[in-house]
């Protein structure tokens, strides 16, 4: 069910995600309003883009769903930073146990989509 | 009983310095400020907004830390700090990283000597009270699993040595010192000993502190800070009107190196460290012993260890924070240790930098090295009416033509801990 965001919430999302790839804060706001989970892969890409070294950003732009996250120069701590941001962006909680199973860009997208759908259906 | 001396101890020299301070972010700027008595202290609006009576801070220029996220932080464009380093740092470690880069470059150390089992780091930092506060607040609000896993290592007092070991690949000794405002002076002494005793060949001595509301407010409560609002008036160490210190932050790094090691590398030697001493007051957690008992014994121990006579010390960079009790205790101790008619020149550079807390010892040892190498005597700023009790001491209240040969630097900290270290001008040979 579409949700309304307050002006304050919109400002906070714009502020918190303004260092991500261009368009990411808007995609997050759009997702939160429309609950359209097909936006999740691009949001994830935009957040990953923020945390990798500048020289790896081009690779992030091109990364396919089967690309292992380690191939984008991400270490486990970067991965954790991405997950922290994604949880805030999607307003969900992902369990450590679930995270241990994911290896590729596509795995993470799918996990997030499932979690998002479960949480927001329940609500 | 005479002091026990080491058999053939190795000699220790300074081969590199790095500064991020209120009076300059590199050697040249610091040198100019010291020579021309340019203060780094200024009005800090944050303090007035916090409704405290204190107005001044020795702010570090060219850096900003507007919020927790490190991608919002700015630092001089001459440095490039990778994101994966920044995520475990607080402001003090960022300053420290930049000062390390300068020191490594000055000492001409290739990566394989920075990262070497015989190269260590001895650090001092109080950590980041600001990050501790912000992260803890967030953990309570969102739960620790939704917070930055680096929050702890970025905040706690060992943050400087931990970050340096990781960022610079340090393979030798690494530890932090926690003796309040004597911390980095202790780091210097320990580094000196480890090289003399043939346990390390090179040791980076580093002190670093945040400089923001969170590092200043706790001192407001102690009533140790000046309430003046004009940096041309206060701090004024040794002046009759002194009413407290000004807090500063930043970072200082010294590269200490075994003499023959430095000679083999063919790098310029800037000065020699020749001795250090330490002693405690056993008196009060906050107030210094009124006669400067511990500091006097620390100075005597340093002189003994250096194998010189008190008369050979011709400049003292005093602890001199500009507090009524602290300055009096130090001057009484100096009078007791230096009994010649014409004692050493004495000045406090804190009157232009502010008090760097755990960073002070390393920063001021760095200033002493500069003074010895560049042949000038730093002036003690803002003295208009010298405290009459100090009249018999050669306090440098105006520029003098004196090229120091042997410089002592004093540091005292809460709990009544005291350190004195001695550096000597380097004459080739």
Question: Keyphrases for this structure?
Answer:
heterodimer, A: 123 residues, mainly alpha, 7 helices, globular, B: 429 residues, alpha/beta, eleven-stranded mixed sheet, two-stranded antiparallel ribbon, 13 strands
Task: Kindly summarize this structure in a few lines.
The complex is a heterodimer of chains A (123) and B (429). With 123 residues, chain A is mainly α.
What is the topology?
The complex is a heterodimer of chains A (123) and B (429).
Chain A lengths: L6 H10 L7 H11 L5 H12 L5 H6 L13 H15 L5 H6 L3 H18 L1
Chain B lengths: L11 E9 L6 H10 L5 E2 L1 H5 L6 E2 L25 H4 L4 H16 L4 H4 L4 E6 L4 H14 L8 H5 L3 H10 L5 E3 L6 H14 L5 E8 L3 H10 L27 E9 H7 L5 E10 L12 H14 L8 E3 L6 H14 L7 E3 L2 H4 L6 H15 L19 E2 L10 E8 L3 E9 L4
Biggest β-sheet of chain A, characterized? none
Give the DSSP E fraction of chain A (strand runs of 2 or more residues).
Answer: under 5%
**Radius of gyration computed on alpha carbons of chain B:** 20 Å
Low-confidence stretches of chain A: none
- C-alpha end-to-end distance of chain A: 9 Å
Give the SSE string of chain A: HHHHHHH
What does this structure look like?
The complex is a heterodimer of chains A (123) and B (429). Chain A is an all-alpha fold and 123 residues long. Helices cover 63% and strands 0% of the residues of chain A. In chain A, helix 1 (7-16) packs antiparallel against helix 2. Chain A is globular. Chain A starts with 6 loop residues before the first helix and ends with a helix. In chain A, 33% of the residues are buried. The mean pLDDT of chain A is 90. The two termini of chain B are 33 Å apart. Chain B has 429 residues and is of the alpha/beta class. In chain B, the strands form 2 sheets. An 11-stranded mixed β-sheet of chain B has the order 5-4-6-7-1-8-13-12-9-10-11, sandwiched between helices. Chain B has helices at 27-36, 45-49, 83-86, 91-106, 111-114, 129-142, 151-155, 159-168, 183-196, 213-222, 259-265, 293-306, 324-337, 350-353, 360-374, and strands at residues 12-20, 42-43, 56-57, 119-124, 174-176, 202-209, 250-258, 271-280, 315-317, 345-347, 394-395, 406-413, 417-425. At the A-B interface, helix 5 of A face loops of B.
């Amino acid at each position: 069910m579409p949700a309304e965001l307050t002006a304050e919430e919109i400002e906070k999302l714009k502020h918190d995600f303004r260092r991500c790839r261009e368009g990411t804060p808007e995609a997050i706001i759009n997702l939160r309003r429309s609950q359209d989970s097909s936006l999740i892969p691009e949001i994830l890409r935009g957040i990953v883009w923020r945390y990798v070294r500048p020289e790896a950003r081009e690779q992030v732009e091109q990364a396919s769903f089967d690309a292992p996250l380690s191939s984008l120069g991400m270490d486990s701590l970067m991965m954790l930073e991405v997950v922290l941001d994604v949880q805030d962006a999607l307003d969900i909680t992902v369990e450590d146990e679930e995270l241990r199973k994911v290896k590729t860009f596509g795995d993470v997208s799918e996990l997030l989509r499932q979690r998002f759908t479960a949480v927001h259906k329940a609500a | 009983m005479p002091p026990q001396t080491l058999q053939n101890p190795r000699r220790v020299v300074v081969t590199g310095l790095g500064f991020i301070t209120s009076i300059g972010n590199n050697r040249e700027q610091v040198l100019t400020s010291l020579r021309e008595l340019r203060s780094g202290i200024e009005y800090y609006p944050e303090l007035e907004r916090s409704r405290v009576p204190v107005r001044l801070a020795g702010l570090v220029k060219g850096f900003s830390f507007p919020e927790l996220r490190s991608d919002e932080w700015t630092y001089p464009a001459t440095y490039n700090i990778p994101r994966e380093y920044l995520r475990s740092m607080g402001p003090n470690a960022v300053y420290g990283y930049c000062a390390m880069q300068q020191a490594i470059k000055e000492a001409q150390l290739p990566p394989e000597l920075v990262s070497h089992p015989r190269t260590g780091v001895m650090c001092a930092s109080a950590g980041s009270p600001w990050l501790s506060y912000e992260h803890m607040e967030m953990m309570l609000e969102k739960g620790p699993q939704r917070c930055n896993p680096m929050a702890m290592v970025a905040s706690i007092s060992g943050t400087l040595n931990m970050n340096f070991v990781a960022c610079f690949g340090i393979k030798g000794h690494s530890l932090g010192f926690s003796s309040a405002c004597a911390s980095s002076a202790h780091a210097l002494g320990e580094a000196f000993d480890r090289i003399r005793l043939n346990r390390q060949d090179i040791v980076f001595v580093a002190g670093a502190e945040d400089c923001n509301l969170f590092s200043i407010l706790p001192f407001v409560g102690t009533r140790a800070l000046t309430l003046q609002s004009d940096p041309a008036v206060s701090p004024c160490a040794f002046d009759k009107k002194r009413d407290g210190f000004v807090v500063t932050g930043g970072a200082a790094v010294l590269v200490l190196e075994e003499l023959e090691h430095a000679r083999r590398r063919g790098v310029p030697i800037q000065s020699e460290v020749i001795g250090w001493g330490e002693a405690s007051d056993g008196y009060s957690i906050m107030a210094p012993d009124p006669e400067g008992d511990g500091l006097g014994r620390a100075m005597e121990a340093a002189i003994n260890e250096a194998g010189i006579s008190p008369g050979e010390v011709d400049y003292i960079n005093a602890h001199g924070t500009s507090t009524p009790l602290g300055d009096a205790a130090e001057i009484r101790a100096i009078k007791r240790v230096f009994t010649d008619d014409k004692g050493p020149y004495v000045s406090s550079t804190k009157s232009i930098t502010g008090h760097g807390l755990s960073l002070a010892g390393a920063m001021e040892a760095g200033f002493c090295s500069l003074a010895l190498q560049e042949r000038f005597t730093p002036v003690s700023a803002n003295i208009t009416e010298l405290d009459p009790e100090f009249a018999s001491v050669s306090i440098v209240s105006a520029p003098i033509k004196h090229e120091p040969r042997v410089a002592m630097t004093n540091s005292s900290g809460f709990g009544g801990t005291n350190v004195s270290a001695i550096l000597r001008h380097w004459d080739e040979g």
